[in-house]
C-alpha cells in the first residue's frame, strides 16, 4: 500500500524525472489505447477487413471484364477509367454508410453502459475524449479506404487514369469519412440511445447523398419551366449566372455529383482547380468562374466537420440537461 | 482545519421538483461520513454535484477548496467517485481497466504496473488480474470500481450506496475495506438508506430527507443531541420484602434521576407476548438482556455465592434474600438520568447504599435507527 499513498499524488502537472512521458501524453496514449483496443481486439476486425478486400477484388474483376466486353469494338479505349470509377464510387458509398454507424455509439454507448460518469470524473478533457473516440472510430474506416489502394493502383496501370484523380478521390473519401463520422458523433452525444443516434445520423447523411440530387433535379426543372414560360426571351445573364453559381454549389455538396463533375472537367481538359468560361449564356453574357467541384465539396465537408465536432463537445458535457436518465425520473 | 467538503445553500431542481433544498454541509478531512436517507432523499443528487457531474441550480460547493462549478479539474484530482449504478467496459481485462484509469490521471506507464498490483491486492482481486472485467461478479466489480477510484490516491472518496445489491458476505468484505480506507486517513463519504449498516463504519453522519439535511455531525454527538437524557437499565435480584413502590421511591429521590419505570423481569421471561407488545427500543434492550438469562436465570440460583464478598459477606440477610429470590420476580428498573459518567458512577453507589440488590447496571445506548426515527419524526411534526 505504500505505493499509493505518497507516490501517486505528486504526479499531475509535475514533470516526471528521467525524461518520462508527460501526464498529458499518458492521458492521450491511454485514452487512444482504450478506444482502439475496444474496436480492434479479437479476430473480428481482421476477418471483416479480409472479406472486404476479397469482395473488392471480385468487384474490380467484374468491372474489368464488363469494361473489356463493352470496349471490345475499340481496343484502344483504356479500361482503367471504369475500374477506377467503380471502385471509388463503391468506397464512397461504403464510407457514407460505415462512418456514421461507427461513430453513432461512441458517447451514447458509454452512457448506455453507465461508464460515462466514471470517465467524466477523471481529469481527461472532453476534447481529448471526444477526439480520441472519433479517431478510433474512423481509424477503421480509414483502414478500409487505404487497404483498397493496391486495387486503385491496378486501374492506374490499366491506363486512362491520372494520379491526380486518385489523389482527389482519396481526399474526398477522407473528407466524407470525417463529415459523416462527426455527424454520427454529434447525434451520439445528443441522443441517449445508440440506435436512435444511428438512425438520426443516417437520416442526416441521406440529406446530401440522396435527397439533395432529387430536390435539385426537380428544383432546376421547375425553375427552367418558370423561366421559359414567363418570358419568351432567355433570362438575363445575371439571373443565369446566379443560377449557375448557386446550382453548382448545391450540386457540389453531394460527393458523387462533385466527383462526377470533376470527371467531366477532366474529360474536357480543363484545369482541375480553377478555370473560366466566356459567354456561357449567349454573347455578351460575360465570364463565369469555375472552381473544381471536388474543392467545394472537400472544403465544405471539412468546415462542417469542425462545426459538428465542436457541437459534439458541447453536447457531450455530462452536466448538460437534467443529468442521467432524461425523461424518466430516477427511481433509486 | 479547512473542511474537505463544504456546501452552501446547495439547491437542485429537476423542473418544478426540488431534489435538494439549500443543503449546508461541512465535512472535515479524515472522517468517514455516512450520508443517510431514504430512497429519493437526494443523496445521489448531492454526490453527483460534488463529483462535478451535475450542475446545481443554486448555491455553491467546494471539494478540497476547489469550486465544483468553476474548478472541476481541481476537484477531479482530489476526488474518487463511485456511482450507485455503474458499468464496466467489455473487451477489457481487469489490469487494463485500472491501467486505463491510471493513465487518465496522467501516471506514467512505469508507475502504473506496480500500482495496479497494489490496488488489486488491496481489494483482493489479485488472481483476477488477467480476467475480463465483464466476467467478474457484482461484488468483485464493486471492489474493482473502488480500486479504480483509488488510482490517483485521492483525499476524498465519494461512494454512492456501495453496498446495495451485494450479498451479505460481500457486504462484510466491503465494510472491512471501507474501515481500512478510513484507517489510511482518507475522507470517505458513503451513502446508504440502511442505517444499521453505517453505525460501525462511520464517525460522522448526515441525515437527509426530501432534499433537506436534518442533522449532521459525529455519531455520538448526534445520538446525545437526540437523547436528551441517559437511560440506565438496572437489574435487581428478586426481593419479596421490597415492593415496586418502595424501589421506585428509593430511586426517585437520588439526584439526577428524572424518571423510573419498573418491570418484573421474570414475568417478561415467561410471557413472551409482553416483549412483542413493547416499543421498539425497549424490546431491543430487553432482547439484549434476555438471552443471557434464559435457561438458568441467575436470580433463581443461589444468590449469595454470586455476589461479591463485600456485599454478600455470607450474612443472615443474604440467606433471607436467597430464600426470597425463589418466591418473587426479579426486576428491571429503567432510570432516566441526567448527568455525566461520574454522576452515573455515583448513581450506582447510591443505589447500593440505599439497599437495592443490584446485580446488573448498564447504560442503554440508543442506536442510529432510533436517532433517525426521532429526527425525522421531529421534522414531520
Ligand atoms: N434526472 C432526474 N430528473 C428528474 N428527477 C430526478 C432526476 N434524478 C433524480 N430525480 C429525483 O430527485 C430525487 C432525489 O433523487 P436521488 O438524489 O437519486 O435520491 P437518493 O440517491 O437519495 O435515493 C428523487 O425524487 C428523484 O426521483
Ligand atoms: Mg441514490
TrEMBL record, chain A:
Q: Which residues cross the membrane?
A: 45-67, 87-107, 128-154, 166-187, 199-227, 239-257, 264-282, 294-316
Record's superkingdom? Bacteria
Q: Where is this region: Disordered?
A: 1-26
A Pfam family per the record: ABC2_membrane_2
One CC-aspect GO term: plasma membrane
Q: In the UniProt record, does the keyword Transport occur?
A: no
Q: Which GO terms describe its molecular function?
A: ABC-type transporter activity
- Which UniProt keywords are present, listed alphabetically? Membrane, Transmembrane, Transmembrane helix
Does this UniProt record's set of keywords contain Transmembrane?
yes
Q: Any coiled-coil ranges, and where?
A: none
PANTHER family linked:
ABC TRANSPORTER PERMEASE, HYPOTHETICAL MEMBRANE PROTEIN, CONSERVED
Name it. Uncharacterized protein
Q: What is the lineage of its organism?
A: Bacteria, Pseudomonadati, Thermomicrobiota, Thermomicrobia, Thermomicrobiales
